[in-house]
Write a structure and sequence with these properties.
Layout lengths: L1 H23 L3 E3 L2 E2 L21 H8 L1 H39 L2 E4 L14 E8 L8 E5 L7 E11 L5 E6 L11 E3 L3 E9 L2 H8 L2 H24 L3 H4 L14
Antiparallel strand pairs: 1-2, 3-4, 4-9, 5-6, 5-9, 6-7, 7-8
Helix pairs in contact: 3-5
Length: about 260
């Protein structure tokens, strides 16, 4: 009995070893299909690959390139209009209100064509006070006519006479008129406004600026447009330019 047992034991162990070999062998499920054993060590080929997805900031920066450029241009245009209106209002104010007080000139708008082509309707006539004794025939003066409503007229002197009391009287004529003016004007005071310059078409602009709607627009709308333009330039500022240099980009997860 003991002899048989000693002979059979190697055989049993051999069968068990064969069974263990079969269990650890790669199972074949079909032609050309191999199943990786569970005990196999995963290699770099079998590890999950990290997939970098586009970030929301990247999509926004790429997709909104054209709208951002349009907003920047629109902001600059609005800001330019506001600045232009403010500059125009400042120039008109300086020319009409400050200039005469500092430099002593006067301005008036030509309403008729009696002095064409030298002075046309809508032109601004710039005059300076000139001593009456210094005027001469051929000068263009602005004065109050002695008849009707005593309106202000700008005409050329054709004749100068001295009155009985030592005053100066003038005969005038419009360059575009056929005859002389039907009055003789005695100049009052020591000076008379003499034409020194003509600014074409500005009179129409000045009259338009004096309209209530335009005045309100210059006073309220221009500053509002300027503020809107400044806010638009802030809102459309490129965030990339304001980001600190050397900022680390976010790393994608590898999934390990």
């Amino acid at each position: 009995m003991s002899t048989i047992t000693s002979i059979n034991e190697p055989a049993v162990q051999g069968r068990r070893s064969a069974t263990q070999v079969l269990e650890t062998a790669e199972p074949v499920t079909g032609p050309g299909t191999a199943v990786t054993p569970a005990s196999a060590t995963p290699t770099s080929a079998t590890r999950p690959t990290a997939v970098v997805m586009p970030t929301e900031a990247g999509i926004t920066a790429t997709g909104s390139g054209k709208p951002s450029a349009f907003r920047r241009i629109a902001g600059k245009v609005v800001k330019g209009i506001g600045v232009g209106m403010l500059v125009l209002a400042a120039v008109v104010f300086l020319f009409l209100a400050i200039g005469p007080r500092i430099f002593g000139y006067q301005t008036s708008t030509m309403l008729t064509g009696s002095m064409a082509p030298l002075i046309n309707p809508g032109d601004v006539v710039v005059t300076t006070p000139t001593p009456v004794r210094d005027i001469k025939v051929g000068d263009v003066i602005t004065y109050h006519i002695p008849v009707e409503d005593q309106r202000v007229e700008t005409h050329r002197i054709t004749e100068i006479t001295t009155t009985a009391d030592g005053g100066v009287a003038v005969q005038t004529k419009g360059d575009a008129n056929n005859g002389i003016d039907p009055w003789i004007a005695t100049l009052q005071g020591k000076t008379v406004d003499k034409q020194v310059a003509t600014i074409p078409y500005v009179g129409n602009a000045i009259r338009a600026l004096r309209e209530p709607f335009v005045m309100n627009t210059l006073m309220y709308a221009a500053p509002a447009i300027l503020v809107i333009g400044m806010l638009a330039s802030i809102w459309t500022k490129d965030p990339k330019k304001s980001a600190p240099e050397g900022a680390a980009a976010p790393q994608a997860s590898s999934g390990e």
